[in-house]
């Protein structure tokens, strides 16, 4: 049995998940159920039409000159495409109804590729529920007006690239049901590009409305807020399919939009958020806003437009970097769509301290929050950061989709205080890391932190070595390991002793994160609660254990 665990590091770090590869699934597929050829009259006969799960690619081109009857007969039993992609390129199909039974596409790279089909009116994948894969692209189908995928509910990938553009120039629309699937699966470096419009519902309701009113949760059209607007009408609003326009009000903040979660504006030359002339507005924070999707490309002038614009409001907004970065990180193509506050932007760098030959400590003793990019590199005498009041770091490099935190190339004695490590390694708020460091030994005042295994220890700093005589009670409370986990020649059969372990953090690029050898009884390598292994290389050594590992 393959050593199967999920080690997840967002974005530029690695993801290993059940040994995925370009042809993932081939090992679990019947060889008789594999197919990798382009679909033509010459190859259709070898398609495994009796297999509900087929491993490989399905590629349709202008050479796929098959009748609708032939196609439906070939794919009548197909439910899952595994390890490859569905490509429909330059065909004369009106729809893909011959794949109506397809329920799931599972791959690691391109999952769906549908460009340049001049007669395609819709996809028509009526039973497709799930797509697992990095790229989902449907573009340049000049007659396509809809997807027609009524059961679609899940798209999963460690990094998703979705490109749905330039289909029917005036009539293409995407339903809110499908749109919500793409909106929900957002990681910091995901990219979602769309143009067209959101389909209007067949019948407007109190919750799904065209005119703002108190029960409304989904508003189709622009939300214009002026001086006399009754803000209670939008207190339940969650989805805005249009622009948010706030001009010349006495508002001080956006707390009245306490449930607004997504703003989607797919029209060309349209802005997502336009806030101007609100002289009392002192905060640009939205309580629950998660996603902003805007089509900012001006195809006529071949340029990007602003998606978010704040102008002539209270001057304090120019100092509201926290809100600026929150808006920036909520966008689905953030490196293109920088919020503008009176023409100024936030970032990308918040802290950049590099190549200072004599620097020994930062000593930014009053710094409490950081937003943007934190880079401290190549300071040969720097041993500590010394940021005693730092409480939060919302860090992402949305400018170039690169490292958000870089701490490397400093003194060989450099170390992060435990509190600093927890802030900078918060993978829910920091998109990507580059470390060449270690965590400092805790002082006497540090609570529940230890350098020698002991009962009650929650944070262990150093390498944790488990041997044949180890007292397992000493790791029962352990949640965070800042060093390597070394398990050798023990009598363990599984890792249930680490019942509370959440994270293994190895910041030294020359060290293994996990080294498990010579444990003849070890039959399972699953940790009950582990969430993330933050190691620069992600090296895991598994040797000489029970033969099924």
Shape descriptor reads: globular
State the distance separating the first and last CA atoms: 6 Å
Would you tell me the structural class of the helices and strands?
mainly beta
Number of strands: 40
Structurally, the number of domains stands at: 4
- CATH-level-4 superfamily name of the largest domain: Receptor L-domain
Strand content: 25-35%
| Helical percentage | under 10%
* CATH class category of the largest domain: Alpha Beta
The unreliable regions are: 1-27, 532-539
Query: What's the average pLDDT?
Result: 85
From the 3D structure, determine the CATH topology of the largest domain.
24 nucleotide stem-loop, u2 snrnp hairpin iv. U2 a', Chain A
Oligomer: single chain
Keywords: Signal
Signal peptide: 1-25
Protein name: Receptor L-domain domain-containing protein
Domain Receptor L-domain: 50-132, 216-314, 456-546
Question: What does this entry look like structurally?
Answer:
The protein folds into four domains: 31-198, Receptor L-domain (24 nucleotide stem-loop, u2 snrnp hairpin iv. U2 a', Chain A); 208-345, Alpha-Beta Horseshoe (24 nucleotide stem-loop, u2 snrnp hairpin iv. U2 a', Chain A); 349-439, no CATH class; 449-517, no CATH class. Strand 13, helix 2 (176-184) and strand 14 (191-194) form a beta-alpha-beta unit. By secondary structure, the chain is mainly beta. It is built from four helices and 40 strands. The model is unreliable at 1-27 and 532-539 (pLDDT under 50).
């Amino acid at each position: 049995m393959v050593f199967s665990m999920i080690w997840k590091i967002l974005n530029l770090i690695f993801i290993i998940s059940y040994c995925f590869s370009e042809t993932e699934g081939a090992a679990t597929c019947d060889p008789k159920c594999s197919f990798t050829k382009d679909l033509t009259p010459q190859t259709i006969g070898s398609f495994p039409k009796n297999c509900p799960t087929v491993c490989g690619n399905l590629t349709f081109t202008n050479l796929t000159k098959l009748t609708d009857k032939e196609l439906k007969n070939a794919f009548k039993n197909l439910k899952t495409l595994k390890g490859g992609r569905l490509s429909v390129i330059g065909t004369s199909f009106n729809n893909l109804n011959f794949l109506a039974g397809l329920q799931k596409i599972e791959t690691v790279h391109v999952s769906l590729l549908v460009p340049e089909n001049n007669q395609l009116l819709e996809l028509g994948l009526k039973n497709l529920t799930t797509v697992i894969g990095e790229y989902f692209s449907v573009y340049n189908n000049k007659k396509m007006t809809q997807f027609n995928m009524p059961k679609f509910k899940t798209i999963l990938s460690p990094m998703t690239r979705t490109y749905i553009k330039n289909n029917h120039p005036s009539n293409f629309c995407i339903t809110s049901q499908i749109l919500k699937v793409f909106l929900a699966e957002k990681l910091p470096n995901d990219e979602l590009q769309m143009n067209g419009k959101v389909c209007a519902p067949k019948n407007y309701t109190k919750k799904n409305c065209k005119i703002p009113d108190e029960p409304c949760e989904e508003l189709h059209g622009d939300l214009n807020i002026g001086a006399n607007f009754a803000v209670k009408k939008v207190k339940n609003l969650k989805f805005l399919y249009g622009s948010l326009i706030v001009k010349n009000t006495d508002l001080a903040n956006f707390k009245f939009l306490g449930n607004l979660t997504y703003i989607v504006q797919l029209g060309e030359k349209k802005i997502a958020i336009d806030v101007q002339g609100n002289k009392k507005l002192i905060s640009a924070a939205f309580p629950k806003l998660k996603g902003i999707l805007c089509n900012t490309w001006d195809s006529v002038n071949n340029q990007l437009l602003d998606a978010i614009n704040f102008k002539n409001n209270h001057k304090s907004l120019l100092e509201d970097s926290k809100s600026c970065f929150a808006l920036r990180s909520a966008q689905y193509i953030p490196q293109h769509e920088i919020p503008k506050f009176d023409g100024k932007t936030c970032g990308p760098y918040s802290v950049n301290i590099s190549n200072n030959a004599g620097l020994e400590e930062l000593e930014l003793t009053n710094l409490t929050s950081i937003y943007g990019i934190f880079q401290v590199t190549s300071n040969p005498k720097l041993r500590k950061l010394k940021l005693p009041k730092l409480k939060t770091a919302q860090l992402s490099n949305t400018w170039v989709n690169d490292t958000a935190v870089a701490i490397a190339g400093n003194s060989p004695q450099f170390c992060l205080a435990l509190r600093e490590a927890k802030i900078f390694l918060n993978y829910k708020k920091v998109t990507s890391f580059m470390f060449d460091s270690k965590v400092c030994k805790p002082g006497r005042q540090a609570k529940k932190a230890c350098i020698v295994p002991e009962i009650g220890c929650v944070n262990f700093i150093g390498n944790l070595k488990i041997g044949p005589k180890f007292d397992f009670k000493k790791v029962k409370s352990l949640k965070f390991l800042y060093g390597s986990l070394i398990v050798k020649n023990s009598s363990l059969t599984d890792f249930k002793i680490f019942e509370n372990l959440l994270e293994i953090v190895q910041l030294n690029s020359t060290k293994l994160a996990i080294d498990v050898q010579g444990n003849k009884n070890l039959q399972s390598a699953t940790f009950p609660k582990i969430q993330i292994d933050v190691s620069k290389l992600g090296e895991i050594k598994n040797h000489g254990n029970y033969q099924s590992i």
